[in-house]
Amino acid sequence: MEKGTANGTITDLDGNFSLNVKAGATLVVSYVGYKSEEVKAEKGPLNITLKEDAKALDEVVVTALGIKRERKALGYGIDEVKGEALTKAKETNVINSMAGRVPGLVVSQTAGGPSGSTRVILRGSTEMTGNNQPLYVVDGVPLDNTNFGSAGTNGGFDLGDGISSINADDVENMSVLKGPAASALYGSRASHGVILITTKRANKDKISVEYNGTLTFDTQLAKWNDVQQIYGMGSNGTYSYDAISNTNKSCPKADGSNMLKYFDGVERPFLIVPDNTSNFFRTGITATNSAIVGVNSGKTGIRFTYTDMRNKDIVPQTHMSRDIFNLRANTSADKVDLDFSVNYTREDVKNRPALGDSKSNIGKNLMTLATTYDQEWLRTYQTANGEYSNWNGMDPYNVNPYWDIYKNFNKSKKDLFRMNGKAVWNIDPHLKLQATLGAELNWFTFDDYKAPTTPGFEAGRLQNSAFRNRMYNFEVLALYNNHWGDFDFNATLGGNVYKVNNQTTVTTAQDMKIRDVPSLTSFNEISVVPGSYRKQINSVYGAVNVGWRHMLYLDATLRGDQSSTLPIGNNMYMYPSFSGSFVFSELTKLGDLLPYGKVRMSWAQVGSDTDPYQLGLVYTKSKYAYPGYTIGYIDNGTIPNKDLKPTKTNSMEMGLELKFLKNRIGLDFTYYSQISKNQIMGMASSWTTGYNYRLINAGKIENKGIEIALSTRPIQTRDFSWDINLNFSKNSNKVKELDGKSDMFELEKASWLDVQIAAKVGENFGSIVGPDFQRNEREIF
């Protein structure tokens, strides 16, 4: 830029430029993330080198569609976490390392153990059905974060997720787009926010070899000490001499005044056993080793990573092995940039924990053990001939944990391939075209074996679930940028095709004829149930960004999605977003006292669809048939809705960003409010209709809250600095309405406790509803 004028230009990819200026003019040369330089214009070529500005680099963030922008130009909140922060204490799932680092981001690990999935919620739950989790985008390509398993009223298993295949050593940074205005360009898949993951490339002009190794240990956290320590097993206020009944009931006082014979034939004093379950568990251990090789010649770079992870869980006989291979290559030639990456993850898990109301839920079975009962006594889990030892009257809801880990088993195997390629054609300094293609292929199998004589599975059972998931994503973008005088202008126009084709086969074998050989051929009765899941979303979108004098910025976006899961007439839906920011510190010029101050505001609307096959009846055939006839029936307990509409969320956000004392203190405050309506949900239906539920658009959820991030550098010397980062967030979540007829919608139920997880009008979404014990000051009535 010619100083003092609007005369300027933009360099090409190699940094070359030409500009006609007056004799003796001063050129101001600048680039995002570098210190500006002023040079005198002279005849002939000029060689200008800019130095990196660490402070400025921190103010450049990755936004939607992978576009880098200055933070001050954004009218919405965005948080970025560097890759170094994710490797200091490695987790088995990289997203677990984000806990506590971003205000408004809630990271919850399930009871599925180290091999289980991680639940991430941004600014509260917005939908009554669905997972409410953000979209993960890796190097511009959405990631399939499917969890093949789930736990509900009748139990189940957490079979892990897709984000666990990302190696922390490969992550350059993560950008969290929390509000709809920040994520609107990603469409209905991003209605719950977006986490952008940028992976590392080979270091420029280097050959590097790196090794990283970590060792972590896990111990039991919940000790279940907050239980009554007065009463023991029995009923009607008295203990029983029946050796195998009432092992997990409570009534008579355990004061040691009586002796009781237990199922193993041993007579013991009727006393409380302190900490009666902890010795079942062991110390878990996870070993992670990574080898990294990088080569870069300047215009071409290749980076290869191999990570080996081995885990032994705190539950005996439970272990996991995971191998992650990652290759990324990039090159530039003339006006074309190419970037390609491939990831392969191989994972084997033995004995994932059963969850929910499963008969084999070890945590539940130990937790409900009477306080007068030591789990050590359960080690006599089988009889002399190898059959199940009846320790509690063959109660099918509480299988002996030792029988579960030594006689029953489950195992899973995953082979995941993820590939993406990007080509960028830099037509001129102002315009470029970009095409990105991503594919994900996931082969997953899960075997669940119940040995003969297991309560509830006396004849034995083996169930094999095979999943074949394929996901494809194709995107084309045109990006334009320019400036005229005091104005900066950026425009983006793009289109996207997202396609999913999943196939499932569940094979169930029962009535075991060959004992101790757990294979399908060892059973008399075998049934096979196939399933499929196909979905496609076609999208077009655009964005315009205008800046004035580096202090006032306005953004507008518009996206349209066409979903295959909604009926014609309602399957194409548009949603806009608007945002703006004003950097008032450009006017105040308070210097070191307040070098940076900005206010921002945004409004956005996003929509979301549903799963396929919700619009019509689905038929299937029974495994039983009369000779010559096939028995068919409607395989759907929900009345379909041919007029289904997309869920819509309206959001408003305001924020204030301040920096004080030479940027040594920073404050970021955000207030947001969003309403989600037209929820797609299955409400209870009268049984006289022949269905259990009816699919409707109803319900409204409100989320509003504040987020505060405080950063400070209290100590800074030439060789040492100390940074402190604090954050606080509070989200108020309320169910505003359902269908106008009901005031509660059951999400899940723990039948053995008569407790529900529900959406209740006027309460938080996911409230726990149920009876409680009536207590006095010391004892339970």
UniProtKB/TrEMBL annotation:
It is found in: Cell outer membrane. It is a multi-pass membrane protein. It comes from the Bacteria. One of its GO terms (cellular component) is cell outer membrane. Residues 78-194 form the TonB-dependent receptor plug domain. Keywords: Cell outer membrane, Membrane, Receptor, Transmembrane, Transmembrane beta strand, Transport. NCBIfam families: OMP_RagA_SusC (TIGR04056), SusC_RagA_signa (TIGR04057). Belongs to the TonB-dependent receptor family. This is TonB-dependent receptor.
